[in-house]
Amino acid sequence: MRYSEGADLDTSGVQDRRGGGGLGGGRGLAVGGGGLGLVGVVVLVLFQLLGGGGDGGGAALGQLGSLGQGQTADNGQLEQQCRTGADANESVDCAVVADIESIQDYWTGVLGDRYQPTDTVFFNGSVQTSCGGATSGSGPFYCPADQLVYIDLSFFDQLQSQFGAEGGLFVNAYVIAHEYGHHVQNLLGTNQQVTPGETGPASGTVRLELQADCYAGAWANHAETVPDESGRPLIAEITHDDIDAALDAAARIGDDFIQQNLGGGTVDQDAFTHGSSEQRQRWFTTGYETGDPAQCDTFATDDLG
C-alpha cells in the first residue's frame, strides 16, 4: 500500500490522547493489529449498555469529543510530523491519519448529508469514553454514545504477535475501515436490528460485524480514487498482496480461529459474535469485489457463508 506523496494530510479527524508520547514512527510496513476478533465483543458490550446504540447514541451527542478525567487531546506533534502522503509512507501514525481521511471522504460521497464525520482517538494503555473505561486489551472499538472510534496503535503489533497475521499498512487500514463501518451502522440505525447479547452464527451481532467487514471492503475498492478536498486521492496503490494480507487477517479474527487457537481449543458456534474466518473473508471480499455498500446487507440474507 502506498500513499500519494504530495497529498496533504488533515489531522483534524484524530484526537491524540497519548499524552506527550512520541509518534510510533518508522516505516511500519510489517506492523499489524490484534483485536478485531476481540473488537466485536467490546462493541457488543457497548450496544448492551446503550440499549442497541440508535437512540442512545443520539441522546449522547452532546458528549461528542468529551475527555475523561485527567485526559487531554494534543495534536501538536501529530500535525508537525503528518503533513503529506510521503509522511504516511514513512510512519504508521501518519498512515492511519490518511486512512481516516480517505474512509470518511468515501462515506461522505456515498451518504451525503447523512454521513456525520467523527474522530478517532489515539490512546495509550487505557481511556475513558462515554461507554465507560477501556484498555488496550479491548482492541479498537467504536462507542455509539460519543460516536468516536478508539484505538491504541500498539494493537497493530498485537495482531501480528498474538494472532500471527501478516500485518502491514493495508491491514491497519482494514481495521480502521471496519470501525468506521460501525459508525455508519450507528448513523443509519442498523444496530437497532440487533438484540443485545444475542450470539450464534446467524445472530444480529454477527451480522453487524460481517457488514462492517463488507463496508471496509467497499471502501478498499474505491480507495485509490476517493478524492480529498484538493480533488486528489490520498491512496496511490493497493496491491493484490495487500488484499491477501487483509484476508489473512480476516481469517485470524474469525470466531472459530480465535476459539480454537487462542481459547480453549473447542469451537462453539453458539458463542459466535463475529462470524467464522470464512464468513469474514467472504464479506470483506463481497464489499471489495462489488464496491457497492448496498451489497453488504447481511440482515437481508439467510446465507451468511
Automatic annotation (TrEMBL):
Q: Which UniProt keywords apply?
A: Membrane, Transmembrane, Transmembrane helix
Q: Which Pfam families match?
A: Zn_peptidase
Q: Where is the segment annotated Disordered?
A: 1-20
Q: Where in the cell is the protein located?
A: Membrane
Gene Ontology CC terms, in alphabetical order: membrane
- InterPro entries xref list: Uncharacterised_pept_Zn_put
Q: How does it sit in the membrane?
A: Single-pass membrane protein
Tell me which domain of life the UniProt entry assigns to the organism this sequence originates from. Bacteria
Q: What is its main location?
A: membrane
Under the heading SUPFAM superfamilies, the entry gives:
Metalloproteases ('zincins'), catalytic domain
Q: What is this protein called?
A: Neutral zinc metallopeptidase
Naturally occurring in which organism (per UniProt): Geodermatophilus sabuli
